[in-house]
Each structure stands twice: as C-alpha cells, then as structure tokens.
Predict the structure.
Amino acid sequence: MRERVLVTGAAGFVGRHAVPALRARGFEVHGVGRSPSAEATWHAADLLVPAERHALIAKIRPSHCLHLAWDAEPGRYWTSARNLDWVAATLDLAQAFAAAGGRRFVGAGTCAEYEWGAARFEEATTPCRPATLYGAAKDGTRRILEAYAATQTLSVAWGRLFYLYGPGERRGRLVSDAIRALTAGTAFPTSHGHQRRDFLHVADAAAALAALVAGDVPGPVNIGSGAAIPVRALLEGLAARIGGAEHLDFGARPLSPTEPQVIEAGTRILTETVGFRPRFDVARGLDDTVAWWRARGKAPG
C-alpha cells in the first residue's frame, strides 16, 4: 500500500510543482487548494476553519503532510495579521495529523526567519531573529512544532525557502513583473540590482521539499541554490531572452538601508544529508520560465 501525503496549498506556486514530484516518489497524493489538479485526489476545505481541517484529516488519514498553505499575497504578507491565523491553523493541523496517526510533517519556512546580516545563512549557526511579522510567525511555528513533536511519535522537518521563480509565478513578484514589462515594452523601475540573492527554480524547490517529505531528516533545512547572484544579472538574463533591456530602469527604486547586500543559502544539509541537488542552473531556469510563458501566449497576469 502506497503512503498517503496531504499537500496543503497544492494549487499554489510551489504546490502545483510539489504534487508531481511527490507522485514520482510513489506517494498517493491528496491536495487541498484553490483549484483542483488532475495529478492529485482533490479536496475542498478552508484550512482556517477548525471543523473543516479536522474533517479533512479524518477523511484522508495521511501518513505524511507537506504544509504549504499560508498567506502569501505579494505586497502584504510581510505585515499581514493573517500570519497569526496561519500560525494557529498550522499548529492545530499538525496536532490533528498526529492524532490521526500521521508520521512525517514538513512545513514551508522562509529565509526571512534568519537575522539579516550574515552573507551566508546556515541552519545550525545563523541566529533566527526575524525582522518581519511573517518571518516571526514562521519561526515561531517551527519552534512550537519541534517542541510538540518531541512529545509525540512525529517527525517534523522545516524547509526554509529562499528566492523562488519559475512557471506559474503570480503577478507582484520580481520575475513575473519583469517578464510582463519586458513583453509589453513598458518601463520596469527597479533597484540598482547589485544586491545578491539566492534564486532557485520553483520546480527544484518543490522537488527538494518532496525529498524532505520522503526522508527522515529532522529540523530546518535550507531550500536554495547555494549560490547567490546579483538581481541585476537575473533581470538582464530575462531581457536577453525577451528583449527590451532598455526598459529595465535600474536605480529608479531606492534599496532600503535595511536590505542585506547578500542572502545566500548554506545547502550542506540539503545536498549531503537529504541528498538533493537542483536540476536547473540560472540559465536553464530562465529559459524554462520564459518558454513556459511564451507557450501560453501571454505574460504573467
């Protein structure tokens, strides 16, 4: 009998890639999200309603859970009070999951849990002192889940996502907005672009999370490429594929003085312990992303 995994946020940016990655690992995949997928058994539930999330767990009785659902609306999620709702919902979901016999719970964290300042973020040595409500909510949730798991027969891992891009990225994010502007031939005001960030193709992020679900590595695991590049290089790479480099207005938006110059994932645990390495480098990732939008005949909307 195949092991059964529940994927929350299965219709989201990461979730739609995680579903096939989990199927490829032999899981029976059950998804809950905004719209159904042909690759998963689909369930309709509002995870912010206690009765609905309890009923979902009782119906599926999953052995594994990949919890991706959270408020991620661009421009508001950093400070949104809905982060508090998702903290409560996540902790209750994990408790119901464990009570129903669930064994392996993997949550989606964020590099924003770390204290800004270190150039390279390592799970064991970089302090977690988040500067935003979003980062604090994720970090607090992880800490409570790990303490709870220690009292149960429950294995908990926490995949800290860095800077993702790729097919299906919603409007309001860097790469999707840049593609839209370059495709339309309109100005794209941005920072100077010299700050370096750890960008990872979303399919690789999803595959890394699937590897984490299938394994037994506990605790936080950075999900990144391990090699930060200048934001300017990423945008110029898009322009080289789409055209319209003259529309990239570097320096039109000031970079906040609190913005770190470098955010790069230490990936030793991901590569050596989990045993995962990305399939896409930046060049192949941008090729794939631009090809995906062109195949649909439109820019991100």
Remarks:
- Residues 82-99 form the longest helix (18 residues).
- The chain has a mean pLDDT of 95.
- The chain is about 40% helix and 20% strand.
